[in-house]
Known about the structure:
Layout: H1 5-11, E1 18-19, H2 20-27, H3 31-39, E2 46-47, E3 53-55, H4 57-71, H5 76-109
Antiparallel strand pairs: 1-3, 2-3
Helix pairs in contact: 4-5
Amino acid sequence: MADSPLSDRLDDDDYPAYTMGRAAEMLGTTPGFLRALGEARLITPLRSEGGHRRYSRYQLRIAARARELVDKGTPIEAACRIIILEDQLEEAQRINAEYRRAAQERSDDSGN
Length: 112
């Protein structure tokens, strides 16, 4: 069955599949680095029933970007702010592109 709940979770970038230890290992960093990203509110891991942090693939991509900036000498707080601003810019550009497409469609429909 291709659309089972398990396959949905495996394809879901937001599914909290990774423990803190596994996430840190994948990123080549420490659990303390991930905790610092949480304290800076860059990422907020979900908690398992036992209270353990669980990270999604999306959160790991954000953490990897933070690590990249920190490795280049950017303080962690500044790295978090940069990533938040990059995300806001990307969203604004996406919305702007949608408005442009809608305006173009209206222009095409009116015969101009």
